[in-house]
Amino acid sequence: MKVLLAGATGAIGTPLTRALIESGHEVVALTRRRGGAPAGTTELVGDALDHDGLLAAMRGLEVDAVVHQLTALKKSPMRHKDMEATNRLRIEGTANLLAAARAMGARRFVTQSMIFGYGYGDLGAHFHTEADVFGRGGYGRFDPHIAAMRSNEQQVLTAEDIDGIALRYGIFYGAEGDPNMALIRQGKLPVPKGGIMSFVHVEDAAAATVAALEHGRGGEPYNVVDGEPTSWRDFFTAAATHLGAPKPKSVPGWALRPMPVLHSILTGTYRIANTKAEAELGWKPSKPTFREGIAAI
């Protein structure tokens, strides 16, 4: 397929570009600056938040599919304001990319979603599946972030004349130049007590995205996580051991409250099941737990 990839240089975009090319797909990389497209792709200069400019840039271009991996997150979000630009990309950016997809004759559209659409904080011992409620508010100042994820998914999954697919990723790790790994090496990344997260190595996330593009059912969401939720303490400790770094220092959870988004991510409980993705996409994480993933760093 000829695929327009928005977000080709991000944490997942870089391995995804490689995975798409290795799978025989032709990649057109949307970038806001000339010369910013990865090697092996065709560059298209445009801004997903500029509706008219985007459509003008794509005039005459035909593609089979669009993959939306755009965020504005250069590092882990700490405060609510850190999510504002990404929220716009999930609402306005998705609408504009869908309009562009129709103009280019695309028949498939895969979008990045996140497991936080199930809620922020302690989600309990229940393993969430795609059958659980997604995008429901009631989380105070987190509601705009949840609403943006809900808007993104609803636009894509209900799009007419396009097979729309949403991938609800867990927390990425293993990206090239991951700043968290640099902090762990330096012994500068403390970890709070508690907190269970569902992770996914970026290479596995990329493989799942290619599988969804090729085999996913239109109108369906898929959880993309590895097979074992784990505590941040175990994750950071294993990473430090692998990197020959000092054991991470502990901090009480309340110390992170001035950074509410980071606090929720590091102290919440997020157990997510990947059963549907494995059954329907023909995908299985090559790093089934964080142990294998960290060993590959």
Give the CATH level 1 class: Alpha Beta
Q: Report the count of strand segments.
A: 13
How much of the sequence is in beta strands? 15-25%
Arithmetic mean pLDDT: 95
How many individual helices?
Answer: 10
- CATH superfamily assignment? NAD(P)-binding Rossmann-like Domain
Q: From the coordinates shown, what is the CATH architecture? A: 3-Layer(aba) Sandwich
Shape: globular
- What percent of the residues sit in helical stretches (DSSP H or I)? 25-40%
Order of strands, widest sheet: 3-2-1-4-5-6-11
Task: Indicate the structural class.
Answer: alpha/beta
Give the end-to-end Cα distance, rounded to a whole number of Å.
31 Å
Rg from alpha-carbon coordinates: 19 Å
Return the domain count.
1
- Major sheet summary line: 7 strands, parallel
Listing every helix as H and every strand as E from the N terminus to the C terminus, the arrangement reads: EHEEHEHEHEEHEEEHEEHEHHH
Q: Looking at CATH, which topology would you report?
A: Rossmann fold
The stretches of 5 or more residues where confidence is low (pLDDT under 50) are none
Structural features, described:
The chain is α/β, with parallel strands linked by helices and 297 residues long. The chain has one domain (2-295): Rossmann fold, CATH 3.40.50. The protein is 36% helix and 18% strand. It contains ten helices and 13 strands. It has helices at residues 13-22, 51-57, 84-103, 143-157, 179-185, 202-215, 232-243, 260-267, 275-281, 290-295, and strands at residues 2-6, 26-31, 42-45, 65-68, 108-114, 163-169, 171-173, 191-192, 196-197, 199-201, 220-224, 230-231, 250-251. The strands form four sheets. The protein has a seven-stranded parallel sheet, sandwiched between helices. A two-stranded parallel sheet has the order 7-10. α1 (13-22) packs across α6 (202-215) and α3 runs parallel beside α4 (143-157). The radius of gyration is 19 Å and the shape is globular. The model has no long low-confidence stretch (mean pLDDT 95).
